[in-house]
Amino acid sequence: MEQAATPAYVIGVDYGTDSVRAVLIDARTGAEKAQAVHHYARWKTLQYCNPARNQFRQHPLDYIEGLEAVVRRVAQQVPAADIRGLAVDTTGSTPGPVNAQGVALGLLPEFAENPNAQFVLWKDHTALEEAAEINHKARAWGGEDYTKFEGGIYSSEWFWAKIMHVLREDAAVAQAAHSWMEHCDWITLLLTGGDLASFKRSRCAAGHKAMWHESWGGLPSEEFLTHLEPKLAGLRDRLFTETYTADEVAGRLSEEWAQRLGLTTDTVVAVGSFDAHAGAVAGEIEAYSMVKVMGTSTCDIVVAPTAEVGSHLVAGICGQVDGSVIPGMLGLEAGQSAFGDLLAWFRQILEWPLHNVLSSSRCSRRSCKPPCATK
């Protein structure tokens, strides 16, 4: 008689713009066992945001509360010992300032209500001027063009532009920020309780948004960064050199988070990644095929054998990074950042008469028949 396979489940956590979702997957079959969704409470009322300034910030408590809510709900469906792994993906670039212990500044009492101490959501465009400076100086400073593996055009939605903007705008945050972390990295650090200095940062996040590349030894040089902004001096040494792909183990759940989530400390936590790249994996992406991940924004993801692409550079995209989607393959990202938001805006325009005119009109009553005689 054949012995039954040992049960094995994994949890995927997906942080989107408006909500966080979790799925429980049978690792033996790929079948979905359970799912849960939690909408961010503070974000729902646009706390820490100023749309007129294109400022969109999210409080780390929204992330933490959502994490506990969705993971506990799906984890209750099977014995905790059967849940072997957990992985997180997030929007990006969504960096936030942290202290030397890796605690997000927004969780500290003195910064709890300061928008500059929160995570700077991917669609925050307050750093337009800083992005323009990066693009100009990357070509004019006389050294390496650090934007060349990111399509040659650096965006206000990305890591360095956002950090520069906050450092210039807020001296208190600039002084308190020992380092900065992408959302996917911070959640993974939170879950494992690891040391900030030795923590495994996401290759996906660093390569596509922070100008990280093996050919120049990691992040852009200290000389270039201080040429961009003197207030960046020393930050490079407090960030990272090595990066890791999403198939790597970041650590195991800490005792605190195993208890908070209803899991065990045997649960392995993977290195974090970005949502669109994880979506391409879920879409069973193959070499030279394109997966379109459509939501608040739309991302187009392609993978290709690294050796075949070689030194060829693709202009105008959002990065080409070895292993950012599938290990051993070059991940290429492009897209339409405002896609879903524009559709939502257009729908609101079309629906305005329904909510503001027709709903209060006598003609909206079922008893009213044309030609209308009301005056």
Keywords:
alpha+beta, seven-stranded mixed beta sheet, four-stranded antiparallel beta sheet, EC 2.7.1.16
Describe this structure in words.
This protein is of the alpha+beta class and 375 residues long. The chain contains twelve helices and 15 strands. It has one domain: ATPase, nucleotide binding domain (Nucleotidyltransferase, domain 5, 2-Layer Sandwich), CATH 3.30.420. Strands 1, 2, 3, 5, 9, 10 and 11 form a seven-stranded mixed sheet that branches. β12 and β13 form a beta hairpin.
Outline of the structure:
It is built from 12 helices and 15 strands. The protein has helices spanning 41-44, 60-75, 128-140, 159-169, 171-176, 183-192, 203-209, 222-228, 255-261, 275-282, 306-309, 339-356, and strands at 9-15, 19-26, 32-39, 57-58, 83-90, 95-98, 119-120, 179-182, 249-252, 268-270, 273-274, 290-294, 298-305, 320-322, 329-336. Strands 1, 2, 3, 5, 9, 10 and 11 form a 7-stranded mixed beta sheet that branches.
Sequence-ordered SSE layout with sheet pairings:
Layout: E1 9-15, E2 19-26, E3 32-39, H1 41-44, E4 57-58, H2 60-75, E5 83-90, E6 95-98, E7 119-120, H3 128-140, H4 159-169, H5 171-176, E8 179-182, H6 183-192, H7 203-209, H8 222-228, E9 249-252, H9 255-261, E10 268-270, E11 273-274, H10 275-282, E12 290-294, E13 298-305, H11 306-309, E14 320-322, E15 329-336, H12 339-356
Parallel strand pairs: 1-5, 5-10, 5-11
Antiparallel strand pairs: 1-2, 2-3, 4-7, 6-8, 9-10, 12-13, 13-15, 14-15
Helix pairs in contact: 3-4
